[in-house]
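Data card: per-record layout.
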Amino acid sequence: MATVLIPAPMRPLCGGLDRVEVVGRTLRQVIEDLDARFPGMKAQLVAEDAIRPGLAVAIDDVLTEVGLLQPVQEGSVINILPAMGGGSPRPD
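The structure for this 92-residue chain is written out next.
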């Protein structure tokens, strides 16, 4: 199994959990397992068969390079990283 670290904005879909154990050999399979247990998660993570714009996913601290096809190893930690927003542009 792998562990998915759930970002705070998505925790209500997971019953408030901050991490979930999942099965899957690719990121796509992991997301399918996550969505089967917590309906609505896939819609938060995937758009048009790719990681949703504004999100990044790191597996064992390495950002995915092949998106949903990224292999996932037994014991991996998957971190969903929402885009950081806010702030004001710096004045010149």
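Known properties of this structure: The beta strands are 2-5, 19-22, 46-47, 50-51, 55-59, 62-63, 77-82. Residues 14 and 38 are 6 Å apart (CA to CA).

See the next section for split statistics.
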